[in-house]
Specification:
single chain; alpha/beta; Rossmann fold; 7-stranded mixed beta sheet; two-stranded antiparallel sheet; 7 helices; binds S-adenosyl-L-homocysteine
Length: about 220
């Protein structure tokens, strides 16, 4: 599936900027408050991640297929999860599940240094070539992110963008002091958003709403 048309890659006109503004207002209405995050959503062109046939849907608050059997998350889900990370400029962030790269662009735009890992080789190769063409430069890794990315640990923040059966211990270990991990945990259909904070030698856990992510695969994920 050629999911990135050349036309959509280069065009970012007033119409698309207007639709992004509308999306930002909708997210604000839904309760998103982090101004830096809303600014990033207003800036990152989401339509360039869409196949030409789906282009008209790029700024709807919905998830969409991005090829290789994967999806780009709903903007509200991206916003909710990112807000829980409390991103500060300069934060070192590990993202598990690169997918389209949209989430990584949002984090970069907020001033984070981003390490992103993807388990699907085609998607990894595609996104690794595509994002720099948009001017976004995370560090790309290929492999099983359910074990984290120990070679570059520790991280100030870790975001898992696939649904996990449990919170992998390795991810808590790879968090810096005061670090935050946000991960959807549950069954294959729906998962509760869980926030883990590593503070003063303690592990604090908060739980939020249910979301629906594609499964986290690998050693600490689902087996198929
Ligand atoms: N953050 C993405 C959304 C990704 S969807 C975006 O902004 O578009 C979830 C992604 O997690 C899929 O691409 C899937 O292939 C990937 N994934 C699943 N299990 C994984 C694992 N163990 N390690 C790394 N990536 C994984």
């Amino acid at each position: 599936m050629a999911f990135l048309g050349v036309k959509s890659m280069i065009e970012d006109n007033y119409k698309q900027r207007g639709l992004r503004g509308k999306l930002v207002r909708k997210l604000r209405q839904k309760g998103i408050k982090d101004e830096k995050l809303l600014e990033a959503i207003g800036k990152v062109p989401r339509h360039v991640f869409f196949d030409d046939a789906l282009l008209g849907h790029a700024y709807e608050d919905k998830a969409f297929p991005i090829g290789h059997g994967q999806t780009i998350s709903q903007p509200y889900t991206v916003a909710f999860q990112t807000e829980k990370l409390e991103i500060q400029p300069g934060d070192k962030v590990l993202e598990i599940g690169t997918g389209s790269g949209y989430q990584a662009c949002i984090l970069l735009d907020m001033g984070a240094k981003v390490y992103t890992i993807e388990y699907n080789r085609n998607l990894y190769q595609h996104t690794r070539e595509f994002l720099p063409s948009l001017g976004y430069h995370p560090f790309f890794f290929y492999g099983d992110g359910s074990k984290g990315l120990p070679v570059r640990a520790p991280y100030d923040k870790i975001i898992v963008t696939a649904g996990a059966p449990v919170v992998p211990d390795a991810l808590i270990e790879q968090l810096a002091k005061g670090g935050i991990l946000v991960i959807p945990v549950g069954d294959r259909e729906k998962q509760k958003m869980v926030k883990i904070i590593k503070k003063d030698g303690k592990i604090l856990r908060e739980e939020f709403d249910f979301f629906s992510f594609v499964p986290l695969l690998g050693e600490q994920g689902w087996k198929s």
